[in-house]
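Run: sequence + 6-O-phosphono-alpha-D-fructofuranose -> complex structure.
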Amino acid sequence: MQLLSAYLKNHDTDNELVELIDILMVACKEIALQLREGALAGIHGTTSDTNVQGETQKKLDVISNDILKEVLLDNRLVRGVASEEEDEPVFGNPEGRFLVTFDPLDGSSNIDVNVSVGTIFSILEVPETGTPDSVDLFLQPGRKQVAAGYVLYGPSAVLALTTGHGVNMFTLAHTGDFLLTREQVSVPETTKEFAINMSNQRHWEPAMRNYVDDLLAGAEGPRGKNYNMRWIASMVAEVHRVLTRGGIFTYPWDSRDPKKPGKLRLMYEGNPMSMLIEQAGGLSTTCYQNIMDIQPAHIHQRVAVALGSREEVETAMQYHQDTPSII
Ligand code: P6P
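>> structure
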């Protein structure tokens, strides 16, 4: 089985990008070790702090964030990082070539119940023009990403990675190496599986309610087939399932906070997951437009997400075109 860096070099990946991905994996391996220790190391539970999202920070949110910041900002290639857990970007080498955004521990509400969580990352290049040490450097649409991926800390730790030439998966071996375990992943075009938090149903737009009602109507309904539902409350695990066997994952706009288009964040959840899904032949939208076409206005901007099997996502979009929006 091929080592991660060997695979990337054999497929003509930019040497400095390979180096950056390698150090990212040094951080993720440390996070995986911390998670394995869990309660034994006294690192379950919450801190007394809340992050910029207004969410109570788990101890492992902070630990993971600190590991990633330390490893990345210590490398000459990194101009700056932006994290779900940081109010503002943190800058490193003024001559650095890359910008990294990340959700250090997505799904962290699952940690104390021992359910899979993950690190999501997005890699951009510093734009030619831009104010030094400014958040503006990061505000690039998802199409500008040079790489994106996640490490899912599940029964095994799996890296799903794209550098713009398809999606490959690498499993963390006991040796500490990430070894190629799935090459050129492809999302099945159709599906019978959907993932949504049904408890929010009364808050959705009419179009989303109509779409999900028809999924629930099954073979007797307009879709003409029976569907299964999943909800793990960990985007990394949901996207990994979609990449692995198809499906649609959606966290739509809801009326609880009408000024925000949804719960998920564009820069370090929507964009990296969209690059993975599109590179694997799927589709990733807000139900109205492709997520990677959005020009970000601020670093913690939220986005509605509907991603996965192309035919299913296109159908969800059609429901939104056919039903007047209330947003
Ligand atoms: P809810 C985790 O907090 C997260 O950001 C995603 O990983 C996940 O898909 C979603 O929120 C779960 O949200 O409202 O079901 O708890």
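>> summary
Residues 106-107, 109, 197, 233-235, 238, 251, 263-264 surround 6-O-phosphono-alpha-D-fructofuranose (CB under 6 Å). The chain has a mean pLDDT of 95.
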